[in-house]
Amino acid sequence: GQQVMQIPQYQHVQEGEDFTTYCNSSTTLSNIQWYKQRPGGHPVFLIQLVKSGEVKKQKRLTFQFGEAKKNSSLHITATQTTDVGTYFCAGRNQAGTALIFGKGTTLSVSS
Amino acid sequence: DAGITQSPRHKVTETGTPVTLRCHQTENHRYMYWYRQDPGHGLRLIHYSYGVKDTDKGEVSDGYSVSRSKTEDFLLTLESATSSQTSVYFCAIGSGADTQYFGPGTRLTVL
């Protein structure tokens, strides 16, 4: 079945270092979404990418959608302790009725 | 945050007892979703609804049933709870496979 895979599962960085998480789909995606979940909280929508090769920025966060629309990445520049949490990517299922989530990358940051 | 609430927020129950979790929205979204979240598994879709009385199974639907008699309410029932159903349950609302807004979650422990 359709799968969305994320790596790494965990990442620990020192504050100020950069961080990247990668998302790969077994099928071509019509779009990809990214969510962030703070410890003890619920997932919160960050962004949606739709176009092949699309790049979007939100302050220190850079999101990319691959040319083949099967992979995506989230890059955080100069991490801060407020970036701590789990980042999920999600793609539409083939019926277009639901999202398939990756297992997430949990980021921890030490100051 | 979107107008979405879940009740109860925490529940401890015993194996074999029925349990019903409630999701309530004030946003009039057509689609509602139930996920479970477990360490190492990310967010897994249990059931979803695309309208009143219209529901479909997700990835991990065994042992769960749902009902939606009103647009604003989506109920998840564990007919006979088992320890493997100990988890955090999230409800989400959205418009098809576009942006989803998550509720605060219900932490369920089955002893």
Topology:
The complex is a heterodimer of chains A (111) and B (111).
Chain A: E1 4-7, E2 10-14, E3 19-25, E4 32-37, E5 44-49, E6 55-58, E7 61-65, E8 71-76, E9 85-92, E10 99-101, E11 105-110
Parallel strand pairs in A: 2-11
Antiparallel strand pairs in A: 1-3, 3-8, 4-5, 4-9, 6-7, 7-8, 9-10, 9-11
Chain B: E1 4-7, E2 10-13, E3 19-25, E4 31-38, E5 42-51, E6 54-57, E7 64-70, E8 73-78, E9 87-94, E10 100-102, E11 106-110
CA-based gyration radius of chain A: 13 Å
| Strand-pairing-aware structural class of chain B | mainly beta
Q: What is the string of helix and strand elements of chain A?
A: EEEEEEEEEEE
Shape of chain A: globular
Q: What's the overall geometry of chain B?
A: globular
Mean pLDDT of chain B: 95
Note the main sheet of chain B: 7 strands, mixed
Number of helices of chain A: 0
Q: In whole angstroms, how far apart are the ends of chain B? A: 33 Å
Question: Your description of this structure?
Answer:
The complex is a heterodimer of chains A (111) and B (111). Chain A is 0% helix and 54% strand. With 111 residues, chain A is an all-beta fold. In chain A, strands 2, 4, 5, 9, 10 and 11 form a six-stranded mixed beta sheet that branches. A five-stranded antiparallel beta sheet of chain A has the order 1-3-8-7-6, with no helix packed on it. In chain A, a hairpin with a 6-residue loop joins β4 and β5. The model of chain A has no long low-confidence stretch (mean pLDDT 95). Chain B is mainly beta and 111 residues long. Chain B contains no helices and eleven strands. In chain B, the strands form two sheets. In chain B, strands 2, 4, 5, 6, 9, 10 and 11 form a seven-stranded mixed beta sheet that branches. The radius of gyration of chain B is 13 Å and the shape is globular.
